[in-house]
Specification:
The protein is mainly beta and 305 residues long. Helix content is 7%, strand content 50%. It has one domain (2-303): Porin. The strands form 2 sheets. Strands 1, 2, 3, 4, 7, 8, 9, 10, 11, 12, 13, 14, 15 and 16 form a 14-stranded antiparallel sheet that branches. The chain has a two-stranded antiparallel sheet with strand order 5-6.
Length: 305
């Protein structure tokens, strides 16, 4: 655990240095009409086809560690109707750091939740402590409406989580459905084009599940604030943006609330070609509920057209 905490300190220190250097002249240098400031692939209203793979490391308060390489992308069926896919093709979960570790290389019996609002992973006596393979994939269908209430744009849709994991430790063994609505509004007071706030809201429930897994009934908020920091250009620190995300989560089955925050910092290499890093931190995480303590994500977004 000491080594992982040192890695966290180095990652966060490097990120803070990048922010400090990148926001030197800040937005006074931004000029009206500069193209590309909003082309970061982060706006939920943008249905341009995109390929957005990412790697994420997650450490839970209960000691579970997860590494996952995910293929993520968006396909537009029509100007106002699109689908995203999220496929964790390379995934590893390790429960050696949890209370289920027996000290002899085996784990169990018992169960450990792999994240907020997720049913515990059941482990038999003397079971393996880790698993590597494919995780549960999801498809999200979104429709951009013509509503203009509160001066913003509204999206509705549904996310479906499929039990595609090839090992019980890597998935939920449940088919989950998550109706969604989102409110997106440009931040006109911000001194650069491309700033917006996006409030995405989901309610997840299980349509069916394995008998060994608990019911799912969970609210998940994904709230973003897009803040361009430097206009696009040829300099190393040009095209830098900040995208802090906040996730309030309420598990109705366990009557438990949790909160996570992740300050994404990205750079536009060229219009439609973006790289980013995103550390994340759980706020007062609960060990017994499987809350996230720390996450770190690095990814690439590429516009297909």
């Amino acid at each position: 655990m000491v080594r992982s905490k040192m890695i966290r300190l180095h990652l966060c220190g490097s990120l803070l240095t990048l922010i400090a250097l990148g926001t030197g002249p800040v937005l006074q240098a931004a000029e009206p009409g500069v193209e590309g400031l909003g082309e970061t692939g982060t706006d939920p209203r943008d249905f341009a086809p995109k390929f957005m793979p990412y790697y994420r490391y997650t450490e839970l308060e209960n000691g579970l560690e997860e590494n996952v390489l995910t293929l993520f992308g968006l396909y537009a069926f029509a100007p106002k109707f699109a689908m995203t896919y999220e496929i964790p093709l390379g995934m590893k979960r390790d429960v050696r750091g949890t209370d289920l570790h027996n000290g002899d290389g085996t784990c169990g019996p018992g169960g450990v939740p792999p994240g907020e609002g997720q049913p515990p992973i059941p482990l038999p006596a003397g079971g393996d402590c880790d698993a590597v393979g494919v995780g549960d994939m999801n498809l999200r269908f979104m429709y951009r409406t013509d509503w203009d209430a509160l001066g913003g744009d509204w999206l509705v849709g549904t996310q479906i989580d499929f039990p595609t994991a090839n090992d019980d430790k890597l998935g939920s063994e449940s088919l989950k459905i998550g109706p969604m609505f989102a409110y997106v509004k440009d931040i006109e007071a911000y001194p650069a084009p491309g700033a917006f706030v996006a409030l995405m809201n989901f309610y997840f429930f299980d349509a069916y599940r394995d008998n060994s897994r608990d019911d799912t009934s969970m609210y998940l908020g994904r709230w973003f604030f897009m803040l361009p920091l430097r206009p696009p250009g040829k300099g190393f620190f040009d095209g830098i943006y900040a995208l802090p995300e906040f996730q309030p989560i309420y598990d109705f089955e366990q009557d438990h609330f949790s909160f996570w925050a992740g300050p994404e910092i990205g750079k536009m290499l060229a219009p439609g070609n973006i790289v980013y890093v995103k550390p994340g931190f759980g706020v007062d995480p609960d060990k017994d509920e499987g809350d996230r303590e720390f996450t770190f994500e690095v990814g690439w977004r590429y516009f297909m057209d």
